[in-house]
Specification:
With 118 residues, the protein is mainly β. It has strands at 3-7, 10-12, 18-25, 34-39, 46-51, 58-60, 68-73, 78-83, 92-98, 112-116. The strands form two sheets. A six-stranded mixed β-sheet has the order 2-10-9-4-5-6, with no helix packed on it. The chain has a four-stranded antiparallel β-sheet with strand order 1-3-8-7, with no helix packed on it.
Length: 118
């Protein structure tokens, strides 16, 4: 079955960096665009970045452009989110998602908490 497992979250000081990973299994990973979303408590989940199946095209939310980089390693079935210059507004639970549906279903990981605080 389709499974997405995020890792790499944690507590970081303002200005610091983290790299999130999302390990995928159960589907032909390189055929599907992937994305990272984030959610703050009591707010809607928002798109952070997305990347095409082959990794040649990526898009970013305005709030993270220039600071975050999405990438993927199709040999490892993993998508990454490199986050630099973190600030308190980046504190959220980060989720990876299949950006294109698999048999009509969008799949989400369980999320990983990122907290930016001094």
């Amino acid at each position: 079955q389709v499974k997405l497992v995020e890792s790499g979250g944690g507590l970081v000081q303002p200005g610091g960096s983290l790299r999130l990973s999302c390990a995928a299994s159960g589907f032909a990973f390189d055929m599907y665009a992937m994305s990272w979303y984030r959610q703050v408590l009591r707010k809607e989940r928002e798109l952070v970045a997305r990347i095409s199946g082959r990794g040649s095209i990526s898009n970013y939310a305005a709030a993270v452009k220039g600071r975050f980089t999405i990438s993927r390693d199709n040999a490892k079935n993993t998508v990454y989110l490199q986050m630099n210059g973190l600030n308190a507004e980046d504190t959220a639970v980060y989720y990876c998602k299949t950006e294109t549906p698999i048999a009509g279903i969008y799949y989400w990981g369980q999320g990983t908490q990122v907290t930016v605080s001094s």
